[in-house]
Amino acid sequence: MLANALYLRDSTEMSLDPFSDILRFVRAESLLTGGFTAGGRWALRFPAPDKIKFFAIIKGSCWVILEGEPEPFHFATGDVGLLSAKRAFVLASHPDESPVDAMSVFYSAGKGHAPIGSGDDFVHIGGHVLLDPASGRLLTHVLPPWIQVPAASPQAASFRWVLDQLVQEGQHVQPGSQLATAQLAQLLFIQILRAHLQTSSALPASWLRALNDARLAPALQRLHGDPARNWHLDELARACAMSRTRFAQYFRQVVGITPIAYLTAWRMRLAERALQEENEAVAVVAQTLGYASESAFSHAFKRETGQSPNAFRRAVRLQQAQR
Fold first, then answer.
1. Which domains does the chain have, with CATH numbers?
2. Could you say which of 155, 171, 294, 309 is the most buried, measured as most Cβ atoms within 10 Å of its Cβ?
3. What are the E-state strand segments in 79-172?
4. What's the mean pLDDT when you consider all of the chain?
5. Which long-range contacts does 181-184 make (Cβ < 8 Å, 24+ apart)?
6. Which residues of 142-153 are buried (b: 16+ CB within 10 A; e: fewer)?
């Protein structure tokens, strides 16, 4: 059903959690892929990842040398990092240590967890986040290249619990361990994003910054809860207890675009998903998203994406056929 593909709701129901809406929409799926223990002096060079990568230090400390950054980052027990940029990086006991190729080390070990050097004074776990190839850019375009959440952060207790559980699942394989590990990895990813949102005042204007803004929450809940509705600036402003002028100014300051432009962009992302995965006529997609005519929808879609809906659908189907 088109309504299911678009995550559209009954018009009387608001989305109380736009953040979850977006994570579901981009199909974020976190997987724990392995880790390593190390002792003495060591350094591993990792190639630029093609997915969002996360890792955590269970024990000890190391340095992260990220391609394109002028200085290395120190990483200590309980710290968690997220790398969204496609950049090579080195993990090392000391910044001056000469690295060896990490993939060769893991290949030689024949498993996801590898011992490095002598001893186990350092323990690392890592994984990656799968995103929908088309819609995933909605998230990757608003994330900084590198996020580091220190163990001393306000979220330390929740991170510690998740990391302890991941270690337990890895050490004691039980029925359901694979699913439990995947769910814990997903929770770790969400916690990293939550911690990043706590710095929202320092974030550039974007939908991500808006998600942690309590003053804009009523408007975002309404826009996500019923994207097909013909929302007016006045009613969104009233929901946020602001004047029309103040609301418009503040929304643009935080999000970077106007409320109506935000609604249009979200509609277009939903339209792309429907055109990619459903067989309904363009006119049906247009009506479901609140457009009075197929022509009005097609103009809005081309203005936003550079392609007509039919051209977009043909291009997507061609790509799918060539895979």
1. 18-199 (2.60.120), 207-257 (1.10.10.60), 261-322 (1.10.10.60)
2. 309
3. 80-83, 89-92, 100-101, 113-117, 122-130, 146-149
4. 88
5. 181/32, 182/29, 182/30, 182/31, 182/32, 184/32
6. bbeebbbbbbeb
